[in-house]
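Suppose a classmate hands you a notebook page containing two proteins, each written out with its sequence and a corresponding row of structure tokens. How would you begin to make sense of it? This section walks through that situation. The first entry is reproduced here exactly as it would appear on such a page.
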Amino acid sequence: MENKIVIFSFTNIAKQIAKTLKMKNYHIIIIEEDEELAQNAKKSGYEVIQISLMNDDNIKSLHLDDSLIKGFFCLNNNKNTNLFVTLSVRHLYPKLKIISVSFASEDNKTISLAGADKIINPYEIGALRIFRLLHKPFILDVLDNILFSESNIEVSEITIKKNSLLDGVYLKDIQLIEKYNLILLGLQDKELSEKFIFYSSGINHKIDADDTLVVLGYSHDLKSFKLLLNNNHKQ
């Protein structure tokens, strides 16, 4: 069965995100109260649930604790609605990954406090994209082809489990990565900070349980690598 992504509001930014995630084989569920927007989402081929999320009972009816749901995107154009829904969903589903939109940098902190794990600010992203296009056009082109095309090359986050084959191993000693034709971009150790540690920085970090590796490779190689880590543990 396909992994699912739930998107609240079929706004312009939602259309782009839904299109990209659909190409990456996610099953998209659009939550939209407006009749016209709901019909547009259906015509685009998405599963649509036409309800308001301004009360808890409707949110509960979505069963967002389904293990196949990998994320909830809160993308309404009204910042107060966006804030309210983010807060309500976080209250009902403490472990759900919530990504919320913000159209002003001064609102980022408020939405984060409401419970969003990640914040999308289209204006900040657009400014950064323009900068990279001017200064590093080749790198931007490569990233676009990986992230936004139908290529079977993916960037994947892999959280290390306790007693996994990589638990306690140093970055420089990982031979499995090359064996599976993958490229290690870096990792995040939340015990130290939220900062991403790039592999190219030369830091020989010791990998522990709950560290997250970010790996680049072909879809089938990533799948095989994940199966190996999930099915094999240190004795």
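The notebook's second entry, a different protein, reads as follows.
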Amino acid sequence: MSERLDIDVLTIFPEVVRAPLSESILGRASDEGTVGIRIHDLRDWTTDKYRKVDDEPYGGGPGMVMKPDPFFAAVRDLRKEKTSVVLMTPQGRQFDQKMAREFSVSSKHLIILCGHYEGIDHRVVQGLVDQEVSIGDYVLTNGALAAAVFIDSIVRLIPGVLGDERSPIEESFSIEDGILEAPCYTRPADFEGMKVPEVLLSGHHEKIKEWKRKIAAERTLENRPDLML
């Protein structure tokens, strides 16, 4: 069994992260002890009676900025010997399958910081964060949503989590040179006149492999030509 991965998530919306990570594959991985995921309410590290985590930005501007002190207090409490602190932010490095594999292989303990409002006081980035990660070039309501996607992508690559060890290898962005995977089919072989390609019914594994490689390249060229460059 591979070494356990522990993950602590700091957010003001714990249930946004907890719900998707408690179901299906990730739920089983947690139950089996392959991964340990703890979701924390950042407000637990505030010191005022209102449990305030944000304040007005210096220099003016719209919205509120998340205060540095709760983050620093929480990370100091949760940090271990081999901890890596990750901030979910649209300003971070673009997340992809390669990065997911890197995290799944090298990480022992992750503390994931989730922003909200107009962002986080930059001293958090300067003083705590090891990596800034973005799941895409768009803005979400809060970083908890991005954290759930980030965690799912990493945990499913841990050996034994998916059950069939071929699964993560044959998925889009994992096969060949990172191209999309070929389409898949199941019964019935003929559904409303739409038939399963004959080659998939042939039982000829080499021909099936060649067909999948060809169709995967065609779908990639059609839907994600940037991956073919």
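A careful reader of the second entry would note: Strands lie at 5-11, 35-41, 54-55, 65-66, 83-94, 109-114, 131-134, 190-191, 194-195.
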